[in-house]
Each structure stands twice: as structure tokens, then as C-alpha cells.
């Protein structure tokens, strides 16, 4: 037996049982799920930093979207605001590192 105590994707229990194993799960409320999502975001970000592959990028995005959903935002709103922000402030395509800002004395 291996113990986990971590949030998993919805179909993982079914996949485990189809493989011939058994698992114990607990379905929690939104407040508890949000706490586990924060931990999951750290876990997935760490995995992305180590593995640097598209699967890990997708995991980070999915966890961030799940957090947004629990905050009350739907994916359409999130993507619309993202596009608006990119139009207004740009994305991260040009690899710009801001070093200093000097105040105008006007």
C-alpha cells in the first residue's frame, strides 16, 4: 500500500481500478479542494522546472484553471481577460527583463 493525500484528476480512481488495484478516495468541498490545488500547483510547477515538457505545462495550466474556477471564474472569462491583457500590455514573447525605472522629475 502507498499513501498519497493529494488531489488527482477526476478519472484517476477509475484508471487505478481498471488496472486491477483498489484505492481509497475522499471527495472534499471547494475550500479544502482549493488548499490542495495550491499544493498541486507547487508540485506541478516543480515538475515542470525539472522535466520541461508539454505534459507538465498542461498540468500547470489545468491546475491554474481549476483554481480560477473555484474563485468563480469560468474558462471563457479567464481566456478573454488573458487576451485583453496581452493586447494591452503584451505577452512574454520578447523575453524582456526590467532592471530599473527612473522617476521623471516633471
Structural features, described:
The chain is mainly α and 106 residues long. The protein is built from 4 helices and no strands. Helix 2 packs antiparallel against helix 3 (54-70). The N and C termini lie far apart (69 Å). The mean pLDDT is 95.
Name the descriptors.
about 110 residues, mainly alpha, 4 helices, about 0% strand
Chain-wise SSE layout:
Layout: H1 12-18, H2 30-51, H3 54-70, H4 75-89
Helix pairs in contact: 2-3
User: Which radius of gyration do the C-alpha atoms yield?
Assistant: 19 Å
Separate helix tally? 4
Termini separation: 69 Å
* N to C succession of SSEs: HHHH
Shape: elongated
- Global mean pLDDT: 95
Q: Percent of residues in helical segments? A: 55-70%
Q: Strand portion, in percent?
A: under 5%
The assigned structural class equals mainly alpha
> Largest sheet, described in full?
none
Based on DSSP secondary structure assignment, what is the total number of beta strands?
0
Can you tell me the residue ranges where pLDDT is under 50 for at least 5 consecutive residues? none
Question: Could you provide a short overview of the structure?
Answer:
The protein is built from 4 helices and no strands. It has 106 residues and is mainly alpha-helical.
